[in-house]
Specification:
It is a single chain. The longest helix is centred in the middle third of the chain and has 24 residues. The protein has eight helices and eleven strands. Strand 1, helix 1 and strand 2 form a beta-alpha-beta unit. The chain is an alpha/beta fold and about 240 residues long. It has a nine-stranded mixed sheet, with helices on both faces. About 45% of the residues are buried. The protein has a single domain, classed as 3-Layer(aba) Sandwich (Carbamate kinase), CATH 3.40.1160.10. It is about 35% helix and about 20% strand.
């Protein structure tokens, strides 16, 4: 059995990923599937923090596009990520994993407020740390929250779960001739305008030399393979 390549990871899960085959909300079967994958990584001694999106419940930018105030719309999106965090926490605890839910939006009766040193201490104790509430500020995506939190907790890598198995020259769900990259540099992503993360998140990663791995978490065992050093998905570095 190989030694884990990474000691501490930041896993970015989108809200849409939690829907499974549903059109809205959370699919318990998909939650259990993800929790099982995360449990395998924890067993290897890897410290895992998770930033979760809220698009399966409410997406701030879409609310704003329909005439809502952007700040309030984004705040609703932040609360959606807390709801998803609670659902994921439940799924992980059913796998007998010790977890902590921390939010950038303070909700004392539901979860802990995010404090960097507290989050790191939970990780050091072997707890799965779920980071909800985005950055706590409007106009910032959960991709940006993932990069920011990864830097704050000194994660070795951001691992972004998507519906496709990496970064392509174009959208593989729309174009049959899309070509997948196994590895790509930050400069190549910018030059070719490849869709990895939003520009704020991507720039933050580039400036701090924080590697990003984009992969398909719906393929069983992919997350563990990445932890063990196998080339899965696309590495951006």
């Amino acid at each position: 059995m190989n030694q884990p390549k990474y000691k501490r990871i930041l896993l970015k899960l989108s809200g849409e990923a939690l829907m499974g085959d549903k059109e809205y909300g959370v699919d318990p079967a998909k939650m259990k599937e993800y929790a099982t994958e995360i449990a395998e990584v924890i067993k290897r001694g890897v410290q895992v923090a998770i930033v979760i999106g809220g698009g399966n419940i409410f997406r701030g930018v879409q609310g704003a596009a329909q005439g809502m105030d952007r700040v309030q719309s984004d705040q609703m999106g932040m609360l959606a990520t807390v709801m998803n965090g609670l659902a994921l926490q439940n799924a992980l605890e059913m796998m007998q994993l010790e977890t902590r839910l921390l939010s950038a939006v303070e909700i004392k009766s539901v979860c802990e407020v995010f404090i960097r040193r507290r989050a790191v201490r939970h990780l050091e104790k072997g707890r799965v740390v779920i980071l909800a509430g985005g950055t706590g500020n409007p106009f910032f995506t959960t991709d940006t929250a993932a990069t920011l939190r990864a830097l704050e907790i000194q994660a070795d890598v951001v691992i972004k779960a998507t519906r496709v198995d990496g970064v392509y020259t174009s959208d593989p769900e729309k174009f049959d001739d899309a070509v997948k990259f196994d590895r790509v540099t930050f400069a190549e992503v910018l030059d070719q305008r490849l869709g990895v993360m939003d520009m704020t998140a991507f720039t933050l990663s580039e400036e701090n030399a924080l590697p990003i791995i984009v992969f398909n978490m719906n393929k069983k065992g992919n997350l563990l393979k990445i932890i063990e050093g196998e080339e899965v998905g696309t590495l951006v570095s």
